[in-house]
Amino acid sequence: MYTFEIIVGTTLGSAEYAADHLAEKLIDQGFQVNIHLDPKLESLPIDSKHAWIVCTATHGAGDYPDNIAPFALQLQQSSPDLNLIKYSVIALGSKSYDQFCHAGHMIDLQLAKLNAKKVAETFEICSVETQIPEDAIDGWYPQWVNNWL
Ligand SMILES: Cc1cc2nc3c(=O)[nH]c(=O)nc-3n(C[C@H](O)[C@H](O)[C@H](O)COP(=O)(O)O)c2cc1C
User: Fold this and answer.
1) Which end of the chain has less neighbouring CB within 10 Å, N or C?
2) Which protein residue has the closest C-alpha to ligand 1 atom 17?
3) What pTM, to 2 d.p., does this model score?
4) Is any atom of ligand 1 closer than 6 Å to the C-beta of 130?
5) What digits encode the pLDDT tens for the residues 36-92?
6) Is the Cβ atom of 57 under 6 angstroms away from ligand 1?
């Protein structure tokens, strides 16, 4: 059974609420979960028993939130081989901005470039269409979790 490492990128807290909610659901189903609010490469296991779930908002003009930006830079600078890692991305954003969910899409590209294997399409949550991200997680979760059973 996988242990999920949930890597959060947030400024105003919504992505953290979404990540906490996802963690509760996974724990209820018997998985182990670690949440990373200050993600660092050295704190993330790189082996086939750990899956990485990035749950990140977009801020500025298509930018990473401040708490996850150093991690994205670390990935870029140290280029670890993530061949053993399976990952999914939950991208929070707003369609009122030009670069909708851009941070989620950028980290997805970074992970794929480092040979990590993507599991399921990136799940986009628009804060205009869905006021409570936890509700979106509830709808998405049942089918997504099948990928990990
Ligand atoms: C100053 C600011 C800039 C934002 N820029 C973008 C953006 O470029 N693209 C996007 O999709 N969403 C953008 N958003 C929307 C946020 O990503 C969205 O509201 C998200 O749910 C916030 O998550 P958080 O509470 O975890 O920070 C922006 C929001 C703010 C307040």
Assistant:
1) C
2) 93
3) 0.98
4) no
5) 999 999 999 999 999 999 999 999 999 999 999 999 999 999 999 999 999 999 999
6) yes
What's the CA gap between 43 and 37, in Å, rounded?
Answer: 11
Ligand 1 atom closest to residue 101's alpha carbon, by position in its atom list? 11
Find out whether the beta carbon of 94 lies less than 6 Å from any atom of ligand 1: yes
Measuring CA to CA, how many Å separate 115 from each of 49, 55, 86, 87, 118? 16, 19, 9, 11, 9
Alpha helix (H) ranges present in the chain? 14-28, 69-78, 102-113, 133-145
In this structure, whether the domain defined by 3-146 belongs to CATH 3.40.50.360 is answered with: yes
CB 84 within 8 A of CB 53: no
Beta-carbon count within 10 A of 39 CB: 23
Structure tokens at 149: 């059973």
CA neighbor of 10 nearest in space, from 62, 60, 67, 48? 67
Q: Beta partners for 91?
A: 56, 124
Closest CA to 30 of 147, 140, 145: 145
